[in-house]
């Protein structure tokens, strides 16, 4: 099976409306993976600065782009309407994670517990970081999904690599352009913000390109088992549109 082409004789073509109404066998698992990786990459990786080969970066960058890969899989296999549901699920999960972090960090520690400072260093976030994360994720993911869905229509379902990489170029550009200024402008110099913003954008796009063979494998496997090819024709692409009822 050649993922990303429209020549699968055993796949039924669905438009975006029909795809939104259809019950898929593996959709719930893919959505759970998307939300889990999104939360874990923000919770575990965001607080640590790593350095490899003289390049310093947030350790979360190694895993956060995987959520974009899964976002690509969601849009490619299940269509924009179903990907939109996952973005909103991830967005509200991040809000709850931020709320829980604030509450737990703020609770008075027990008198004999000595880990409060370390706990605050790992799980404590300023309101600017939280706002930046939420805004950048929401906008970047919707741009990523929109571009991929539109490119699929333009390419007739061919050249999956062009859609996954192309959508990441735009989606991650929006993500980085929002996150770093919101989070650090005024704390970092303009030059530092721009340098980190461009560097991280480039690394995320490169990471997406390197993961292209994995994306092909996952997309091909899921399409073969779901038995459909979704093209987002006749669909409202607004992030706030309601999914059609079955």
TrEMBL record:
Pfam name, any one: Vut_1
UniProt KW Transport keyword: yes
Main location per the UniProt record: membrane
Bilayer topology: Multi-pass membrane protein
Subcellular localization(s) per the UniProt record: Cell inner membrane
Alphabetical keyword list: Cell inner membrane, Cell membrane, Membrane, Transmembrane, Transmembrane helix, Transport
Annotated transmembrane regions: 26-46, 52-74, 86-107, 127-149
Domain of life: Bacteria
Function comment: Involved in the import of queuosine (Q) precursors, required for Q precursor salvage.
Family stated for the protein in its record: Belongs to the vitamin uptake transporter (VUT/ECF) (TC 2.A.88) family. Q precursor transporter subfamily.
Cross-referenced HAMAP family: Q_prec_transport
Name the UniProt record assigns to this protein: Probable queuosine precursor transporter
Organism: Novosphingobium soli
